[in-house]
Amino acid sequence: MTGVKNKTAYQDTESRFEEEMRQGKPEFAVVVLDINGLKKVNDTYGHDFGDMLIISACRLICKTFQHSPVYRIGGDEFVVILEKATSTITRNSLKIAERNRRIQPKRPGGHPGSIARGIAIYNSETDLVFANVFKRADDAMYQNKAAMKERRRQQESSE
Q: What is the CA radius of gyration of the chain?
């Protein structure tokens, strides 16, 4: 449906990085992204509109990360793996984090949705397995999701 790599491809890539981690010190970062409000769209407008939201969000993610592989690992969850020199990853991660704040796929009816994101850079001293990097990125994504909900709640209460 989205044209991006699937969970099986992601697991293959994860295995490749596990091997690279055993053999040396690869330089990479993991970005975890999650579409906010998909369940509400599915429940309110139907799954066809939910699919449209997923496709719209996926296009924006692919545009943002046009030089990195994008994987859809769940219904509304995507992973991007950034590979390059550590300094470049750090610099790009900050740019990506800022850019992703503006990613807002349109929901049915023209209302913007949002995408929560979290980024973690591989650290050879603390990350024993690839899953450690993913977990840090996933945790950061959930923190971002909670902050987005809180901001939305505050905006609604001030209106």
A: 16
